[in-house]
Design brief:
Shape: globular
Distance between the termini: 42 Å
Radius of gyration: 17 Å
Length: about 250
């Protein structure tokens, strides 16, 4: 049986953190599905106008018993853009489409990047299921008209290390909000590479990250498609909330 352990959801209250620590990610997914209507995109993704500034530098994919992960590597030649649509199609033999992210009902983080700053970055979707082995990935970056009016809130990751539980290997650490703005459904994405080759990719979602000064450390737990150990790790957590409540 496939264990859907690839996405961890991190809570910030003591009770919820205790729950997340003892339940499997499969159980977490079932629990969160009760609130799915509040979190999911109801219309489905369709890129009709491609982004003139943010380009796809490359795409990568890998699969294991838990599913398939896709990594889209981005290059932004201009200013920061917000809520950037990213459409992917996973292709098999003879370029037959196996799966895409165009269906209605997907979480916003699986069809867009919350913030893409100037320079290079990456975007991960590790919630894909296909019975055939992926051969390649097509990706399109949609146009976005949203721009921040000032500097982005700073999110820091620290004390990162590998640990293991009943669901497998995960990357553990602390996430800190250095801004005065509460972050909601903030995505932490991590990839592991060896010699430039993708070895593993994973994500975690922090439902609510309180502003500075944070009274207690907020832990993160990132599970992977693939085995991340032995590779060079890269992680990012772009802010999802640019303006809004401060406490």
């Amino acid at each position: 049986m496939i264990m859907q352990r690839a996405l961890a959801v991190v809570a910030v209250t003591t009770a919820a953190a205790s729950l997340a620590a003892c339940e499997s990610t499969q159980e977490t997914s079932k629990r969160l599905s009760k609130n799915a209507k509040k979190l999911l995109n109801a219309e489905g993704l369709k890129v009709t106008k491609q982004n003139g500034q943010i380009k796809v530098s490359s795409t990568e994919s890998l699969s294991d018993a838990n599913g398939t992960a896709v990594v889209v590597n981005l290059k932004n030649s201009g200013a920061t853009q917000l809520n950037v649509p990213i459409a992917i199609a996973v292709l098999g033999r003879k370029k037959k489409k196996l799966i895409d992210n165009s269906l209605a009902g997907l979480d916003a983080s699986l069809i867009s990047a919350a913030a893409v700053e100037k320079g290079t970055s990456f975007w991960v979707n590790n919630q894909l299921q296909t019975s055939s082995k992926p051969q390649s990935v097509n990706a399109k970056i949609g146009a976005s008209t949203e721009r921040p009016k000032g500097p982005l809130p700073k999110i820091l990751l620290s004390k990162l290390s590998f640990k293991t539980d009943v669901s497998g290997i995960y990357y553990s650490g602390i996430i800190t909000n250095k801004s005065k703005i509460v972050q909601k459904r903030l995505v932490v994405s991590c990839v592991s590479r060896v010699g430039g080759r993708l070895k593993a990719a994973g994500r975690a979602i922090v439902e609510r990250l309180m502003p500075a000064p944070t009274p207690k450390p907020t832990p993160i737990r990132v599970y992977f498609i693939g085995n991340p150990t032995g590779g060079a790790m890269s992680c990012q957590a772009p802010p999802t909330t640019i303006t809004g409540e401060a406490s």
